[in-house]
UniProtKB/TrEMBL annotation:
GO terms for molecular function: galactosylceramidase activity. GO terms for biological process: galactosylceramide catabolic process. The lineage of its organism: Eukaryota, Metazoa, Porifera, Demospongiae, Heteroscleromorpha. Residues 212-312 form the Glycosyl hydrolase family 59 C-terminal lectin domain. The keyword Secreted does not apply. Residues 57-176 form the Glycosyl hydrolase family 59 central domain. Keywords: Disulfide bond, Glycoprotein, Glycosidase, Hydrolase, Signal. One of its GO terms (cellular component) is lysosome. The keyword Signal applies. This is Galactocerebrosidase. Residues 1-49 form the Glycosyl hydrolase family 59 catalytic domain. It comes from Geodia barretti.
């Protein structure tokens, strides 16, 4: 089985969190509706627009391999129609870092690559060409998924020139297209002031704009009509986690660049040993949230409060139950 996992399909989480913009598309402003169609979606198109369920990757030596001056190629084959597509890449090592596991050192140079078609691939006179030229530096000057016309095949043989950091698809298939989009809402900062009583959400729903880092926060009703609904941390025990996140459940909202900010919450502490904290200027989240610094105001069910500069100083088990 062969697959490529794109994580995330749409990157929708705050700037400052790990893997920011690590997706085929980016949509980080639900309050504005702004989104960006990123380069990876067009790199994916070099494969996805030329494949269907039931296609085969040809074996190495028969339709896949490495190029003489660096790079590689694979061939997708449709056994029903004998259509095929050759996908070529000449990505340099410095521009191939977003992959696991990391790649060993290698070099790539511009080259003329000659291909010889045999067997079921022979007999075609031309192949349709789609090309991406990746450029790195100030701004994105890359050219993505260009319709580059056709490549002539003579006697089952053809040659293409491949610059460094190029992705190319050569195919017998037709009908491919680089999609277009318009009317993208303009980007806007997080809307302030922001206020939420949580009363308009369904039970067990999620409050808008919050990004859980440790624990899980849901909207729940309370038995007190004067309180109404709260945003509660609902995981009773720390699970087995795949990274060293914080012992204290926490969720983020807002903008990491804020410095002078006023935040106020109403909290409901139920039972002994429960506590809450409100923090500003959180330095990091995700797997690094346990090491986050900032300004932390702590309050427990006995009325004791404290101010710290990180999560590690206060040792009680914390549960953030309500923010408004």
């Amino acid at each position: 089985m062969t697959s490529t996992i794109s994580w995330n399909l749409i990157a929708s989480y705050y700037s400052g969190l790990p893997y920011f913009r690590d997706g085929l598309m980016t949509a980080t402003e639900p309050w504005s509706g702004h989104y960006e169609v990123m380069g990876p979606i067009w790199i994916a198109a070099h494969t996805t627009q030329f494949s269907e369920i039931g296609y085969y990757y040809l074996k190495q030596g028969y339709g896949a391999g490495h190029l003489a001056s660096g790079g590689s190629y694979v061939t997708l084959y449709d056994p029903k129609t004998n259509d095929f597509s050759i996908i070529i890449e000449t990505m340099s090592h410095n521009h191939s870092v977003c992959i696991r596991p990391s790649l060993p050192d290698y070099t790539v140079a511009p080259q003329d690559a000659t291909f010889v078609l045999n067997g079921v691939l022979a007999g075609v006179d031309e192949l349709n060409q789609w090309t991406t030229y990746l450029e790195y530096g100030t701004g994105d000057t890359s050219e993505y998924f260009l319709d580059s016309g056709t490549v002539t095949v003579n006697g089952g043989k053809f040659t293409v020139f491949l610059p460094v950091d190029t992705v190319m698809t050569l195919s017998t298939l037709t009908g491919q297209k680089k999609g277009s989009y318009s009317g993208v809402p303009p980007s806007a900062p997080f809307p302030v002031p922001h206020y939420d009583t949580f009363d308009g959400y369904p039970d067990n729903g999620e409050a808008k704009y919050f990004a859980d880092q440790s624990g899980v926060f849901e909207i729940l009703p309370t038995s007190d009509p004067a309180v109404g609904k709260v945003m509660a941390q609902v995981v009773p025990e720390r699970p087995i986690t795949w990274c060293d996140d914080a012992n204290q459940p926490n969720t983020l909202i807002g903008n990491i660049t804020w410095t002078d900010v006023f935040a106020e919450v109403s909290v409901l502490l139920e039972g002994e040993g429960t506590a809450v904290f409100l923090a500003a200027r959180m330095s990091q989240g995700g797997c690094g949230v346990a090491k986050a610094t900032g300004v932390f105001l702590w309050l427990d069910s006995t009325g004791f409060y404290n101010i710290t500069t990180d999560l590690g100083i206060y040792v009680h088990h914390m549960q953030l139950l309500c923010m408004a």
